[in-house]
Amino acid sequence: MAVDVLLGLQWGDEGKGKIVDFLAPDYHIICRFQGGPNAGHTLKFEGKKHVLHTIPSGIFRADLINVIGNGVVIDPVTLSKELKEVKEAGVTIDGNLLVARKAHLILPTHRMLDQASEAHKGKSKIGSTLRGIGPTYMDKTGRNGLRVGDILSPDFQSKYEALKEKHLGLLQIYPQLDFNLEEEEEIWMRSLEDLRALPQVDGEYYINDALTAGKKILAEGAQGSMLDIDFGTYPYVTSSNTITAGACTGLGISPKQIGEVIGITKAYCTRVGSGPFPSELFDEDGRKLAEVGMEFGATTGRPRRCGWLDVPQLKYTIMLNGVTQLVMTKIDVLDGFEQIKIANAYEIGDQQTSNVPFDICEDGIDPVWKVYEGWNTSLEGIRSYSDLPVLTRNFIEDLENQLGVRFSMISTGPDRSKLITH
Ligand code: GDP
Ligand code: IMO
Ligand code: MG
Q1: Cα 272 to middle of ligand 2, angstroms
Q2: Average pLDDT for residues 393-405, to the nearest whole number?
């Protein structure tokens, strides 16, 4: 058996939570492999909306195991809140949520460092979610971090204090923060109890044994490929590998074990936080996409920047991830547009390119637009691909030709049921 990987091909918020929730019954195990509470994955069913940050999006499906992999960074406080919310929604947590011992912990002082570093950057701030992600991954690669397995160790408290002291030393270089550490620490220590109550596993053995036993596994990405630490729009990225390769290091599986790679893109493009976005719109179309698409961050509530679909960007992330099937979400948001555009190349000075350039962070990239006639009708209630308006199918099939990969699913609304398989 192989591990299928599902991930975002843009700057996050492509609708990963919805698609994982839809696909989950086809799998035995759903795993998160990177990121942490910077993620906000929205699921909607039976008229209710649920937002998950750390818990995999298979949690609402019966008879499934959900694993928080070693590549994830965990804030016990967020996790504790999420556990409470899913329990209130009727989920029983009893052996169906496992945590990898090697996953790193986000301390309150990591959040302080995130806040201080962003404030210090001023205008060039990343637009971080301020969840402590960057500082926690820095401690991981700097070989200072605390891991989930450490919380059962008798000297956990002294390890915690040592790391906290180190952080307080680092914070000296920044102006004083408005952060009640004592209070935050108390909540953190209390929340740790909920994490302690979850079964810990050596994720790498657990997953490899499950594969040997013939279990079907889906790895759920967080963020999007353009936020990847290596290949995203650096430095305006997150601090983990969000691409398929991240599933290997974030779960402990070999590249040979990767099966399908399901890449998700919205029918347009959004980005929350700072950084380059070549196809961003500042006009009425952009405002309409934001309004109709209700583009506000699921974690921070911040408005998302909007633009048209960007083919060079998608080709780039399809290449990086080895995408075998595409999913298009939010196509319904385009229902009321007379004209729909996509960027199918970039103009940089007097050169045209269809590659994402190294210096994407510099100004001066002009998208070359391709214009489609809009279908200008509601897709509400359409259940099969052949019932889609011909103009909608033309749009999808033209993109398939340009991208070289088929769309296996088209999502027409936030609800679990609003999905057309193709
Ligand atoms: P994720 O981080 O990739 O899981 O995505 P988010 O949950 O942050 O953002 C996606 C948003 O779009 C959520 O509010 C979803 O409920 C919503 N959504 C997902 N699919 C569709 C769709 O096909 N149409 C519409 N209109 N909304 C969708
Ligand atoms: P999901 O999984 C959209 C963005 C932040 C910021 C940058 C760095 O819901 O798609 P960080 O907190 O990681 O240091 O922030 O990355 N970002 C996301 N944008 N969706 C996400 O997750 C994101 N996670 C981080 O806005 O620009
Ligand atoms: Mg999100």
Answers
A1: 7
A2: 98
